[in-house]
Amino acid sequence: KVRQKMGMVFQSFNLFGHLTVIENIMLSPMDLLGKSKQEAYDEGMRLLRTVGLAEKALNYPDELSGGQKQRIAIARTLAMDPDVILLDEPTSALDPTMVGEVQAVIRDLAKTGKTMMIVTHEMNFARAISNRIFYMDEGGIYEEGTPEQIFEHPQRENTRRFIKKLKVLELNIESRDYDFLGMAGQIEVYCNKNQIPPKTASRIQLTFEETAQILVSLLESPRIQAVCEYSEATETAEWTISYSGERLNVINNGDELALAVLKGITEEMKYNWNENAELPNQLSLKIQQA
Q: Which protein family is it in (predicted)?
């Protein structure tokens, strides 16, 4: 009985290929709800009109486009009059040209007050249609909130990186004899993998090299964590470099030549001190756009 109150729209449609469109919609109401053939037919046609496909009632699924199949799948789910509808990546199996028509049907459903739980990677769609967002990561609900909270003010790091489409590289230096060439190679692979423009990639590399050189020369036992974040959305890059020791603002105390190089390739350099952090010194360097 509980399952009958829940409807499911599958990623891959799951329509019966040997049945026509209207037969697909009529089947469950007749078998599970005990509706007569006429009742199921009338309701099925009404739902087909709702999703804009009444003229396809006698077609078979193989004769439909992906977007049409998904709209039929939604109509079939609605035929059971569920209290809650679960939609599993409803647009992921579709060509980009067909995504809009399915999203339009789901938006219309939302306006009726029907409760829906939608699994999706379409961020603009999720933001426009939802009143509650759950970001899933690390095997569970990582962060939740209103669309405004999640998209404008995410509180947790993985959420922020996902929403802003950030590509992340993390490097760690534990001694003065760190593997300079190995880290340079990791940066090159990272830039190539994420198709970062060559000029920006060169600045990412040079920013790390100069900052690492300053810190290693100043810190007796360096512990340095360097995190580069590249945003696909804005094509911007930023290094956040945290390091051990007493309060040390390298912007004011570093090698003058290295700092001059950094100032020439960064838009902004900021220093912060957090005495409660494991690595209390933090330097943020925003790379100039190419």
A: Belongs to the ABC transporter superfamily.
